[in-house]
Amino acid sequence: MKVPENLEKVCQLEPDLIGYIFYRASRRYVGDRPDPALFRIPENTAARVGVFVNEPLGSVREWAGTGNLDMVQLHGNESPEYCKSLVNEGIHVIKALGSHALEDGNSLRAYYGVVHYLLFDTSGEVYGGGGKKFNWELLDGYDLPVPFLLSGGIRPGDEGAILGLDQMWMRGVDLNSGFETTPGIKDERLLKTFIQQLRKG
């Protein structure tokens, strides 16, 4: 999210998490001095998640410590040690990994006991999935007792496929480009239909 008025409409749908991009190369970057209103979420509506990519630890700590964020999502090459240092300070961490990690048990196990959630996105040359899906059948072999979120090219119409996934550790989905009118501006009508369908299932 990057516009307070859009945030207000999305919050009416009661999502579990609201994301803010703190990666300067992203078209969804909140800016060097984001409007404080962007972080004002109605009480008990959603947790605020700051998305960082290879950011110095001090910068992540600073944003998390201001009270503007409830969790951080690390979308770069952050090591398990990097994540653990934040968790040890009481910061809730989601670590994003490319879908290739689902084929490499060692890279997954390295984050066991270190992060609160994993997030699986489409592997690519740039950070983020680029609006493309990966082969969700890779999730069939996931058995690490760490809850995860599914990301990467999720769009309206994917509700049935998501509800059909037989994965006990999946806790939610990350909705981004497939539900935007422009980068950082969400289409609340598309979100409403999608969220309602998932919650019915």
Blueprint of the fold:
Elements: H1 4-11, E1 17-21, E2 47-52, H2 57-65, E3 71-74, H3 80-87, E4 92-98, H4 105-109, E5 117-121, E6 148-150, H5 159-163, E7 170-173, E8 180-182, E9 185-186, H6 188-200
Parallel strand pairs: 1-2, 2-3, 3-4, 4-5, 5-6, 6-7
Antiparallel strand pairs: 8-9
Mean pLDDT: 93
Q: Summarize the helix and strand pattern as letters.
A: HEEHEHEHEEHEEEH
Main structural class: alpha/beta
User: Main beta sheet: strand number and arrangement?
Assistant: 7 strands, parallel
Overall strand count: 9
Task: Please give the order of strands in the largest beta sheet.
Answer: 1-2-3-4-5-6-7
Globally, the shape reads: globular
Alpha-carbon Rg, integer: 16 Å
- Counted by DSSP, the helix tally is 6
Characterization of the model:
The two termini are 26 Å apart. The radius of gyration is 16 Å and the shape is globular. It has a 7-stranded parallel sheet, with helices on one face. Strands 8-9 form a two-stranded antiparallel sheet. It has a single domain (4-200), classed as Alpha-Beta Barrel (TIM Barrel). By secondary structure, the protein is of the alpha/beta class. Helices cover 24% and strands 19% of the residues. It has 6 helices and 9 strands, in the order αββαβαβαββαβββα. Strand 6, helix 5 (159-163) and strand 7 form a beta-alpha-beta unit.
